[in-house]
Amino acid sequence: MSIENMRQLENARVKLQELEQLHADTRLNQASSEHVRDLTMRSLKKRINQFKEEISRFEARIERT
User: Fold this and answer.
1) Those residues with Cβ within 8 angstroms of residue 13's Cβ, 6 or more apart along the chain or in another chain
2) Considering the domain boundaries, does residue 1 fall inside one?
3) Which of 40, 44, 55, 63 has its CA 20 to 30 A from that of 28?
């Protein structure tokens, strides 16, 4: 994933918020399998970090111009 313009930046921010909410909801929910819940949480956290990194990279590029 690579953010190329402001529209993609806004979409990435929305998606990041959705992922963070899903992560919080998953943390609070009692899953039938603790192992599955932990794997889901790890996966969501990885995606959240990817979005944060891409947003930061794009914002850094904008600041330089």
Assistant:
1) 55
2) no
3) 55
* Total of domains in the chain: 1
Residue 36 lies in a domain: yes
Q: Is it the case that residue 34 has pLDDT exceeding 80?
A: yes
Q: Is residue 28 in a domain?
A: yes
Angstrom distance (rounded) from CA 63 to CA 55 = 12
CB 41 within 8 A of CB 23: yes
CA 29 to chain centre: 19
Global pTM reads: 0.90
Q: Domain limits at 11? A: 6-64
